[in-house]
Amino acid sequence: MSQPSASTSPVTSETHSASATKTPAELKQIAAQVRRDIVRMVHGVSSGHPGGSLGCADLLVALYFRVMKHDPAFAMNGEGEDLFFLSNGHISPVWYSVLARSGYFPVSELGTFRKLNSRVQGHPATEEGLPGIRIASGSLGQGLSVAIGAAQAKKLNGDDRQVYVLMGDGELEEGQVWEAAMYAPHHKVDNLIALVDRNGQQIDGPTDAIMNLGNLRAKFEAFGWKVLETDGNDLEKLVPTLEEARQLSGQGLPIMILMDTQMGYGVDYMMGSHKWHGTAPNDEQLELALQQLLVDQQSDY
Fold first, then answer.
1. pTM passes above 0.85
2. Is the residue at 1 inside a domain?
3. Are 46 and 280 in contact, with CB atoms under 8 Å apart?
4. How crowded is the C-beta side of 233, counted as CA atoms within 13 Å?
5. What is the distance of C-alpha 6 from the center of its chain?
6. The CATH number of the domain where 38 resides is what?
7. Closest CA to 272 of 199, 220, 211, 204
8. What is the pLDDT of residues 241-262, one digit of tens each?
9. Pick from 25, 21, 20: which is nearest to 8 by CA?
């Protein structure tokens, strides 16, 4: 176990906005803590979706601790703030951890994940009023449509902030995604930044085997999107791509970021395998994962 570093702040909850100045090294420490949260959450109830959650930890940490302007005090309308929607809602553990650690609700509440009467359910929901959650999600294919509506509302209200939405690559097999993909360029929804977690895996196997998605860049460009590509598990590449996307906003085109990740990133026995899409680690596997996810000053719930 590593010892606390005198130069590194503990990974605890705090308020962040677009003015945050977290370095890649600091973001990596937060992402490691988030990954510890993920494996502990799904282990605690022997259910959940660790694979995609681990793969997207770097993205959500970059958004909430570096890129987005947001307020953990939380107002549902999000006026004057950047908004984030999680379309592939089954990877809720990563979002819950990032929300808690950026100050939306107590970190201790992560320990209630998927339990009866918890606000921290298997898929994000609005019924219990969990701060940070604006829509129920998990029925795949709907998030892009919702994000477009939110982005258009911001434009109508004279609100110059961005709307972000994350989708899984397997989710792109849903037809509603492509209707929305046509709609956004046609209506010049240029305050929208969509991301696809391109990990090549879904619950039944590799996406290429289940339903080959073909050339996603060519597809979205043909629909009229501005397309960027990046490594979603390398913060030194991911953060500049997110900043470039923000700079390209407002130029008449929606932005799509195709983000290559590895399912289960950070835990070697999970990485790259669809078998960890929705499987929880046992006691021995949890300890092995935690050994691989060391943080200078751990702040486990």
1. yes
2. no
3. yes
4. 19
5. 30
6. 3.40.50.970
7. 199
8. 999 999 999 999 999 999 999 9
9. 25
